[in-house]
Amino acid sequence: MSTETADVATTARSIHNPVLTGFHPDPSILRVGDDYYLATSTFEWYPGVRVHHSRDLVHWRALGGIITERRLLDLRGCGDSNGVWAPDLTYVDGQFLLVYSDVASFASGYWDPQNYLVTAPDITGPWSEPVKLHGRGFDASLFHDDDGSTWMLSMSADWRPGRDRFGGIEIQRYDRAARRLVGRPRLLFTGTTAGLTEGPHLYRHDGWYWLITAEGGTSWEHQVTVARSRELFGPYEVDPAGPLLTSVGRPDLRLQKAGHGSLVCTPHGDWYLAHLVGRPYTPLGNCVLGRETAIQRVEWPAGGWPRIPGGVPADEVTVTGLPAHPWPAEPATDHFDGAELAPCWSTLRRPATPDWVDLRTRPSHLRIHGGQSPVGRQTPSLIARRVGATHCSLETVVEFDPVDHRQLAGITAYYNTLNWHHLYLTRSDDGRVVLELLSSDSGRRTPYPELTVDATGVTRVGLRAEFDGPAVRFGYDLGGGWRRLPVELDATILSDEHAALIIDGEPAAWGFTGAFLGLWVQDLGGDGGFADFDLATYREH
Q1: pTM of the complete model
Q2: CB-neighbour burial class of residue 448 (10 A; exposed 0-12, middle 13-18, buried 19+)
Q3: Helix H or strand E segment including 427
């Protein structure tokens, strides 16, 4: 190794948290050789299980997602914040293995989770047909023991009234050759007084089995709990020093909700924890950016317990021993020149198939065929990207010739079916093409008829949506330069906290995603309406 290369390899650099900004919760981190991968939850969005790649833990690039087809998971009819929960990515015998949960319910203490496993020779696929695993609980993961055996862990759900719905962590053997679970499940760990024990990951290190779990719920009381045992089936002793990581009781911290972690070890023996965080706009306020992914350095002395300095999430973490490996910057403007959508885009409840996402008919344009209304859960036509900063914007140019008021195309600041802001072109009853603005707050729609703009005769219309801290603003360009609509809309309704709904002590809805900026086309009459988008520019300010 040359002196210059050695210097690069040993120079300390900093991780700036969060490493994955915007909606990227429940990280599962994996190292294969010199490559690091982060898999995160996607809920009702395709592609399911978003994956990022790094070679130095500092710089990450989006690879897209794994669940890109309905054969891997059908999200038609999926409720808000249901769908793909807490994926787990592992590697053994030259194959990637991905376990993911499809959670269908919230009501009355039921979740209706179904767990699946797919495998692939490469992180980019091709991925196998799904193996259907048990549905006894969610947050499933795999542990590959030193003897070659593989075990599946998950939280154990208990629907019975008066019982703890988080019944602990269970384990069952998975036969990789037969591709099925075998033997009887065992209850491995019932958790601590923090409760809500979930998100298990198991590791073998220093002669111990180490069980990492998420506890306290995924909001302000979240934490990472560590327990260990000399035997696979326990008993497991909880770290007497308390949580490995938490933000509880520290509203002054920039990074809140710290929890749901997984560990990775570098070739040099350094340990790191990937975990979720939230960045509220005010102390313990709404997290419009959703739950994000951060990384902490872990000190792990021989014979001792793993430790994170202070037990709290740091904004900046030093990394040593890994050569710097930045990736080319993502272009600010997508000209839609590719055969497929760029990895930054996601689609709601249905994959980006040519029947409604058309990048071929008109070169350098994205043609979106209209879909259902904002409350439709089978065939919506929304293509969106995650909001990654408190100040950011999305601009586009659209060509659209609506036949009536049932056809709408425009730009949106979106959270879920009940919470969104939408600036769109449509046709009014008097035959004019007009720009209209509509908002939905917990399902209560607010129109702004006084802001209607006549766009009749304008072929190409520029549209802009902007997040400015707690405000959302919209603008338009009919050919004479940009104009701003004279209204500020509430950005904080596009948050996990605002979306959650508890009725008589029962969760009627949760908010587990984050804010999006997107291109939305509706054809409520099913008359074949479509819109052509020439470009889309995303900027963080």
Answers
A1: 0.96
A2: middle
A3: strand 419-427
